[in-house]
Amino acid sequence: MNRVSLVGRLTNKPELRHTNNAEVPVARFGLAVTRPFNRDEVDFINIVAWRKQAENVSNYLDKGSLVSVDGRIQTGTYNDKDGNKRYSFDVIADNIQFLETKAQAEQRRQQENNSQGPDPYDFQQNQAENQDLESQDDIYSNMGDSIALDDADID
Questions:
Q1: Of 87, 94, 126, 152, which residue is the least packed, with the fewest Cβ within 10 Å?
Q2: Does residue 53 carry a pLDDT above 60?
Q3: Which domains does the chain have, with CATH numbers?
């Protein structure tokens, strides 16, 4: 079964386009999703919405909007301009729910504009930080004391 459910914030304003032949609306956007056990780590997922749902996300959502996405994973391949084979990974949205009101979104935008900190939804900035973490010799050095488990501990 190919199902995925995500909750996160948009990394950019949805980009609305139309297919060449049927003029079917399609919107693409990035979703920043925090990991459940370490809120400092964020995954960036590409989302694709079609038809009326694509129009709605394009008209009503912006960078930083909180949404829930239910859909399926779709992979593909293509050749880049240099002829190298590339792989794509997208979530095709079946259902997108807006999780904040217009007033909450406006209040959040005002707070973000007043703060001088880094943008938590900036894909390039977070990728650079993740590469810095990956280059460390022991990525588990800050995990704390080890825990020993064996079958006797399980009821």
A1: 152
A2: yes
A3: 4-116 (2.40.50.140)
